[in-house]
Amino acid sequence: MKVIKIEKSQWSPGLEKLRGAFRLIGPVKEKTWHDFQELAAGQMPDLAFQNTRLSPKSLVFPQSEIMLDYSLDKKDPDCNIPKMAEKDYSPRAVIGIRPCDAKALALVKMNFDTDEYQDPYWLNLYNATTFVGLACDAPCSTCFCTSTGCGPYHEEGLDVLLAEREDHFVAKVLTDKGARLMDSAGWSTALPDAAVLDQAKSAAEGKIVSKIETDGLAAADTMALHGADFWEDISFACINCGTCTFSCPTCWCFDIQDETYGKKGVRMRNWDSCMFPIFTVHTTGHNPRDTKLARLRQRFMHKLKYFVDKYDKGIMCVGCGRCVRQCPVNIDIRNISKLMNNLASEARCAVQGS
Amino acid sequence: MSTYTEKIREIAQRLLKECRVEMVIGFRKGSVPMMNEPCFVRKPEEVDALVWDSNCGINLANYLTNRKEKIGIVAKGCDSRNIVNHILENKIKREQLVIIGVPCQGMIDKRKIVAMAQGEVLEVTESDGQVHVKTAAGDQTFDKKDVLQQNCSVCVHRNPVISDEMVADPVEEQKDVDPYADVAALEAMTTDERWAFFDDLLAPCIRCYACRNACPLCYCPTCFVDEAKPQWVGKSQDPIDVRTFHLLRAYHCAGRCTDCGACERACPMGINMRLLTKKLNKDCLDLYGWEAGLSLDSRPALDVYKPNDTNDSIL
């Protein structure tokens, strides 16, 4: 893989050149935090951030997305025939996505792109996008990415990995898509000493102070975890809001709604949350997860056990720490994973009779 | 505030040992700066988990709704007013509760600290009215009065209105504050200005409902936004639906809100939706001389009819 040096003087001219072939999306400071937005003409991505308030999952999985539209006009020959809504799937480049968020998209892809089903909305947006990552040289105290099979210089899900230095960027080109973007921007100065990235990677990983252990989860007995007595204590504070799920880069649940206005209607999907009581309400009124204990347990069992068992790709968490920082009542996935992993070891030993 | 912590533990231990309560609801130390976690303690030997400092802004009355046990509950001024609300609205019985009153000196606003600090906030401690912030870039100290939550800075009910135990003598209530200066500023705007202001205020909302769920007043079995038959509100990010949620939620709190600030504190997007409820609080005070949750002996303003009631509240 090629490693290219981009002088800072060539940064904005290169981005301007990219605009011919790509719509550009990058971090922008809004009020007091950063979020990803489409960059207007002349607007540069603001790379002076640790991590964005919300994850950039909405770039491929908008919070509200129209899937189908239809006419309710009886005179319309296509009345009541839903059609795939027209969308702009032209090429776009996300500049400055953090490695954890890019890995999260790769994890989520396992759900939206299976042998059996391919979600066209998610995949069309994902495939139209070139992801230019920004390595983390100053991770947050709540980041635990190195414990989740990720890291501040992790490359999974990225087409290019950038590392920012005082007067230049080091760009590692990871895919053909990434190579095409670099060509379009006119960035081509090969860096002779590519080892500089390896050193920076080790240094950045050394700055991750928060760690979790997950080694016992796969072998743990599911029912022992499900029936563990710590759930009441952990779930007590939970207010069943959607902060954790909405800010999470790996939560993918949605709810489908029809909305009509006059003689037109749309079928849309909106983010949903397993923390909401109505998430599981049946049409009979029965709710199989009718307590907050059951809902909170579901969220963590999904991320730390069911996903582990189903895909054998580790936990469904990239360690971005957003839920840890933003939960209004301080429910901390690092604490819960510790309880689950500890119990997992005990439960496994019990099974082995040792 | 550490004396508060000691006293809370002492009282909690006594209540549990004497079997006067089955559980004590309070706060335990959080895992990140400026956060404590609501928790319960069932055994006398577990009371050392309980803490008190300026990061106990979540309203614990929210954790009482429909509980059946005998409960000891740690309550600052606003929590105690919401406990009064809960009792009046039959969400808990007075005789189920042993209220451990905390004379409150205000909660610190974590967003203010984050905005004022240089670099990521790693540790926050407090002593003698000062807040010490440790960041990657160094140490900073602020006067606590400069970093209070806005509602705490203008609070005039810091002492619990009902209690069975007190962790300290009452604190002096603030006298020279104008609780409704921010509402007056909104009232002074033109309609267009106000519309633009609220558009901007609510634009970041992601409908996570943290504001609703952190609120002790919001205990409906099914919230109007979650109703399907009929569906009152759309579920998308359409600004009309987002505004509808906030406006109707505020109206459901009319005459009941204690301005505890839990909604604003809980919001991951930092939206001050309190401005909506505060306007209604001000109206209740102006029209009916009513402030919520001050007494078990009077029914809430919108709960009673008096022949001489003003008609000005009828839209």
Task: Sum up the structure in keywords.
heterodimer, A: 354 residues, seven-stranded mixed beta sheet, four-stranded antiparallel beta sheet, 11 helices, 32% helix, 19% strand, B: 315 residues, alpha/beta, six-stranded mixed beta sheet, three-stranded antiparallel beta sheet
Write the topology of this structure.
The complex is a heterodimer of chains A (354) and B (315).
Chain A (H helix, E strand, L loop, with lengths): L2 E5 L3 H8 L4 E8 L2 E6 L25 E8 L11 E2 L7 E6 L1 H14 L7 H8 L1 E6 L25 E5 L3 E6 L2 H10 L9 H12 L15 H5 L4 H5 L7 H5 L6 E8 L2 E8 L20 H20 L10 H5 L6 H20 L2
Parallel strand pairs in A: 2-6, 6-7, 7-8
Antiparallel strand pairs in A: 1-9, 2-3, 4-5, 4-11, 8-9, 10-11
Chain B lengths: L1 H16 L5 E7 L6 E6 L8 E2 L19 E5 L1 H12 L8 E5 L8 H7 L4 E7 L2 E6 L2 E6 L6 H4 L11 E2 L14 H7 L3 H12 L7 H5 L24 H14 L9 H5 L7 H15 L27
Parallel strand pairs in B: 1-4, 4-5, 5-9
Antiparallel strand pairs in B: 1-2, 1-3, 6-7, 7-8
Can you tell me the number of structural domains of chain A? 2
Oligomer: heterodimer
Interface with most residues: A-B, 43 and 40 residues
Q: Helix count of chain A, per DSSP?
A: 11
Unreliable spans of chain A are none
Helix share bin of chain A? 25-40%
End-to-end distance of chain A:
49 Å
Structural class of chain B: alpha/beta
Structural shape of chain B: globular
- The class by helix and strand makeup of chain A works out as alpha/beta
Strand content of chain A: 15-25%
Shape of chain A: globular
Q: Could you give the distance between the termini of chain B?
A: 46 Å
Average pLDDT, all residues of chain A: 95
Number of strands of chain B: 9
How would a textbook summarize the main sheet of chain A? Answer: 7 strands, mixed
Structure summary, number of beta strands of chain A? 11
Mean of residue pLDDT values of chain B = 95
Q: What is the H/E order of chain A?
A: EHEEEEEHHEEEHHHHHEEHHH
